Amino acid sequence: MNRYWNEKIETMELSEMRALQSERLVKQVKHVCENVPYYKDLMDKKGVKPEDIKGIEDLHKLPFITKDDLREAYPYGMLAKPLSECVRIQSTSGTTGKRVVAFYTQHDIDLWEDCCARAIVAVGGTNEDVCQVCYGYGLFTGGPGLNGGSHKVGCLTLPMSSGNTDRQIQFMMDLGATILCCTPSYAAYIGESLKEKGYRPEDNKLRAGIFGAEPWTEEMRREIENLLGIKAYDIYGLTETSGPGVAFECCEQSGMHINEDNFIPEIINPETGEVLPDGEKGELVFTSITKEAFPLLRYRTKDICVLSRKKCSCGRTLIKMTKPMGRSDDMMIIRGVNVFPSQIETVLLNEGYTPNYQIIVDRQNHTDTLDINVELSPEQFSDTIRDIASHEKKLASAITTMLGITPKVHLVAPKTITRSEGKAVRVIDKRKLHD
Ligand code: ADP
Ligand code: ZN
Fold it and tell me: How far is the CA of 409 from the centre of ligand 1 (A)?
């Protein structure tokens, strides 16, 4: 069986990887300094010259880039290649503000698709597979990235894009899709819709799913695996570094291998910028060492996770990152307590509820309020209707145990919370609207 897409890179000794990263970093810093005045200015301000960067050990000397820099430099300020060499743009989903536009040369697209091919092979994908891609196509990187990776592996690719769930299901069943690629929330929705139509998990031919683009919990993974009768794997990426495929999960299903031949990861303390050792939780920072058109050095992702070099049973030596528990901007501070939506999701699924929920934060009389709407499944709806108040109380108390603050829980009727075909909208923070 073909276990790796690029065995040499994916199983490279650490010292060899370090040497490769160093060589590419030095070249990349030079390329950026010569072509991106915006970054050269940042370096000048920090008093760093390109020749100060002699290898990966000097990475920490470089200034960070943030999303604000990208917004300031919009649209062409970070471009490092002439437009005549660029062949495409992609753009962020705009989850946290103004969209960011990223540029690609043909070489950049090849590398990106290669990363996605590694992800597909890591879940057992081969040219025998039928790969259904229902991430959005167009500006969003999900569709084009996995589509390209699937082509490279030689899978029969179904470029479905997101939405029209009836058609997704028809093609999935008629063409015998074996790999499903979409957001985890949409995967759960497809699973739910299959069940409603009377299909059992064993009725589909799916084996594996590659789900990412938004945070999801281990509980959500089990829910999707049971609904669809598959193994569910995580994939991570962001438009600023290319798109999905920056990191991908292997058969161990415990964290994602980072394609460190292309992206050097660091974990920093988000408050001080200090680099933290492997194993400590902090903000993930990436340096793109192979991208030509939009090569970001030390880009702060705002995603919070942990890196680990623990030996992986799949044989890959690429460093692993844990599932990001959410972005630092997803973190809500409610009555002084830090709350991530993923903590609430964990409790809901452990208590047997659906992954369809919405969190509403507001402020009344100078006090923060936390309301959580949780959708009941049709079976739960008929069972609990007489006793709703006591179920709400029980769930609220389980959430209080997890968070340390007490929410108001509202159990709502099936199908009343809007489903997302792309990234799910989990939080409505009305405090921001008043500000
Ligand atoms: P936007 O920032 O507008 O959402 P992108 O579509 O480029 O733009 O999304 C990238 C972000 O999506 C990442 O920074 C991260 O927060 C989130 N993300 C992507 N994949 C995952 C994943 N597997 N788990 C958790 N979060 C993810
Ligand atoms: Zn592995």
Answer: 28
Q: Are 169 and 228 in contact (CB under 8 A)?
A: no
For residue 392, which amino acid is it? E
Residue to substitute in 70, 89, 95, 123 for testing ligand 1 pocket (most ligand atoms within 8 angstroms of CB): 95
| Environment of ion ligand 2 (residues, CB < 5 A) | 250, 252, 312, 314, 316
Q: Which residues contact 102 (CB under 8 A, 6 or more apart)?
A: 89, 90, 91, 92, 239, 240, 242, 294
Can you tell me which residue has the tokens 């049973």?
313
**CA 255 to ligand 2 center in whole angstroms:** 8
Q: 287: closest CA among 276, 295, 302, 298?
A: 298
Task: Report yes or no: 246 and 286 within 8 Å, Cβ to Cβ.
Answer: yes
Question: Which among 120, 123, 171 is positioned nearest to 147, based on CA atoms?
Answer: 120
Distance between CA atoms of 230 and 331, rounded to whole angstroms?
Answer: 31
357-to-188, 360, 375, 417, 419 alpha-carbon distances in Å? 13, 10, 6, 7, 10
Residues 6+ apart with CB under 8 A from 61: 46, 48, 52, 53
From the CA of 92, give the closest atom in ligand 1. Answer: 8
Q: Which residues pair with 243 in a beta bridge?
A: 238
Helix (H, G, I), strand (E, B) or coil at 182: strand
For the chain, first and last CA: distance in Å?
57
pLDDT of residue 326: 73
Question: Ligand 1: which residues within 6 Å by Cβ?
Answer: 92-96, 212-215, 234-239, 301, 303, 323-324, 327
DSSP helix/strand/coil, 256:
strand
Chain segment 253-295, per-residue pLDDT in tens: 999 999 999 999 999 999 999 999 999 999 999 999 999 999 9
Spatial separation of the C-alpha atoms in residues 39 and 132, rounded to whole Å: 39
Instruction: Tell me the per-residue pLDDT of 29-62, one tens digit each, with 9 for 90 and over.
Output: 999 999 999 999 999 999 999 999 999 999 999 9
CA 317, chain centre distance (Å): 21
Report which ligand 1 atom has the smallest distance to the Cα of 247: 23
CA of 211 from ligand 2 middle (Å) equals: 17
